[in-house]
Known about the structure:
58% helix, mainly alpha, elongated, 125 residues, 5 helices
Amino acid sequence: MRAKAPDGAGRVRPVTIGFRVTREQNAEIDELVAISGMTKQDYIVSRLTERSVIVKPNARVQQALARRMDRIYAELRRVERAGDIPADLRASIATIADAFAALGQEPADSDSEDERAVIVEMERS
């Protein structure tokens, strides 16, 4: 058996763990990893071992946040008339808001009173 080389932190990791997820789960994990600024492996290990995931602010993280905010904004516009925001979108909004807070940024104010009302209603849920 060949000895494994240490990783960047000097750890030897000889065990491989694999699992299957749906495409949707993979997309969500990829999004959370991008927002965290961590590697996928470090992010998953941190979450599974219940360690905190600390967002490492950099340009890549900010771009991932901006892309996700654009998708959230588009989805909010789509469901605005229906008045019902899906649970996965609420969770995504909370994750993005936490990431923005960790970066010391506040989301920009909305230009529309209707959009503000939707967001305020979400916060009450």
